[in-house]
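WP5 quarterly update. Target: Tyr recombinase domain-containing protein. Source organism: Gordonia rhizosphera NBRC 16068. Length: 287 aa.
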Amino acid sequence: MRVDLDTLRPGGDQAERNPPIDVAIDGYVPRQIPETTWRVIEDEVRQIVRDSQPATGTSADHHMLAVTHFLAWAVDQQRSRERERLFLPEVVEHYVATACRHLSPVSRGTRRSVLRTVGRRVTRKARWDSPAPVYPTSKSRPPYTDEQCRWLVKCVDSQSSPFRRRVLQSLLGLGLWAGFTPDEVAFLTTDSVINAASGRVAIELPARVVPVRTRYARLLETLIASLPKGAFLIRDKPVPRVETISQLIGHCDLPTSLRPLTMSRLRLTWALDALASSAPLPAVMAA
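Structure tokens (predicted):
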């Protein structure tokens, strides 16, 4: 059975689970793309997403959505759909700047990020090593300092509700001390947290195991101890949209000096901390 993944909303039946990668790819049928266009690009889209090797069904959903709209735009613009000519940084930037104006800045940034990820994985000649330009509407934020990290941890206990405490505690543990991206954390459960070698806490994903920095592993251990076995980490239901994670973080009680708190800023802080430690570089780059 094929489902319209373009229109899934929080609380829907499909939002209740993280579909297998193959199901997410093969079951995708867009609603906002003309059927005639979809017939032209369908096989290409599915193969590109398979070749991009998404780690989870959620990632596959995001890849399918972004690649579908990107290739549909290429058809409309009468552009070549050959990978090495379409998946170029400058073409992606032009597409996002001209064809994604109807999206919010967060959604526009997500669309571009997904296409850049796919582009890196399905091309050989394109120069994806240069950083993406920053939108005029966005403001680059520096990583958190050690003092600010300690302050963030203290903020967990000062949340005005158990729900906000759970959101902040889980996202700090997953983002700041394990380096996860938004589309990776949405469907993690207590069963995803395992004990790795030497008694270290780690997060098990379908494609890899990511160790949690020892200094702050207690955050996740305490959270897991308070939740039923198999429960989702962030809230009782999974978070089916990347934008929803930003909304959940936005509701947490934080001082102005620590805002904005985003998963990308947490991951940047984690990456710099990991590189400054004794962690092997290949392990950091693979996380």
